[in-house]
Amino acid sequence: MTINNALKAYLLLIPGLLPIVAFMSLVVGMAVSQSIGFFNFAGDDHFSLLFWQQMLTQDQFWRVFFYSARIAVVSAVLSVMLAYPVALWLRRPFPGSDLISAMIKAPILVHGLVAAFLFVNFISFQGFLNVALVHLGLIARPIRMQNDPYGIGVVVLQVWKNMPFAFLIIVGSVRAIGDDILDAARDLGAGRLARLRRVILPLTLRSLQASLILIFIGTAGDYSFQAVAGPININSMSQFMLRIQMDNAAHGWNEAAVVAVMLMVLSLFGSLAVAGLMQFAVRRAGR
Question: Which positions ≥6 away from 215 have C-beta within 8 Å?
Answer without folding.
Answer: 72, 75, 76, 79, 80, 158, 162, 165, 166
